[in-house]
Amino acid sequence: MSKVGDRIASVRRFNRFYTRTIGVLGDGIQRTQYTLTEARLLWELAQADQAETVELRQRLGLDAGYVSRIFARFEGDGLVRLERSTVDARRQVVSLTPAGRRAFKTLSDNAVEDMGALLGKLGETDQRRLLAAMSTIERLWDGPVADDRVVIRAPLPGDLGWVVQRHGELYADEYQWNDEFEALIAGIVADFVKARKPGRDAAWIAQIGDAPAGCVFCVAEDDVTARLRLLLVEPWARGRGVGARLVGECVEFARRNGYQKMVLWTNAELHAARNLYEKAGFELVSEERGESFGRPQVFQNWSLTLVK
């Protein structure tokens, strides 16, 4: 089988696993008599006092006749009220009755209980890994998720491994750098853990929703100089001010803790990062050419005076 074929087979296998795990393949979902489609319609109706049937159908990508039959049964069971729109009599609107809201509450409560039981099988670290993976899938296929706030926090267990992995993957994808670069990053992270001192060294992870979106490190160069290292922003998080916030956090930490100067080492090819450094007040000090990470490189040294 080809590489594409292998990947398609993997996606299909995951889909089968996931639908089986959350129990949507049977006649009822979340221990109710409702199908997945019926449950989705109840959820949509519970989010507002009233909705147009045409808009609901289009939003969910459902056949008109299929939706009409579901609403007819819901109406017969006393779950919904179907009326003509007061704005446009040609359109039909639908709303949940008190019985419909009770049915939705049962569905929702059962879903919370079932999902809680699934998450309860995992420890805290694995729960965070699961949620980050789910956020990644959602963003890759559907764009930003509802919770789009950027949170800057200290690293949690597993985050330092993510820093190394994502540097290796992104720089290979975007710049074709080889595994020598990933080895360099692993060494920097290891040295940080071994030598870090409170108030002198720190690291930050940017998080959006449940997924890590970027990182930056501050390490002591000498008694008066701090070094900014390992700035990275995920491609899906770029353009949202994540990089500027990470750089700002790093610079303010250094200034607050008595450093007089901050330096960094980067590459002339990293235009977006260089732009962030310039906006933060860094100035280019020197350049050096060489062969590293499997390619010719132009490395740059930048500096920022912290004490005026």
Descriptive report:
- There is one protein chain.
- Helix content is 49%, strand content 23%.
- α7 (159-175) runs antiparallel to α8.
- The protein is an alpha+beta fold and 308 residues long.
- The strands form 2 sheets. It has a 7-stranded mixed sheet, with helices on both faces.
The overall pLDDT, averaged over residues, is 90
Molecular shape: elongated
Which parts are unreliable, with pLDDT below 50 for 5 consecutive residues or more? none
Tally of strands: 10
Number of helices: 10
Give the helix level as a range of percent: 40-55%
Head-to-tail CA distance between termini: 63 Å
How are the strands ordered across the major sheet?
A: 4-5-6-7-8-10-9
H/E order of the elements?
HHEHHEEHHEHHEEEHEHEE
Our Rg estimate from Cα atoms comes to 26 Å
Question: How much of the polypeptide forms β-strand, as a percent range?
Answer: 15-25%
Biggest beta-sheet profile: 7 strands, mixed
Question: What quaternary form is this?
Answer: single chain
Structural class: alpha+beta
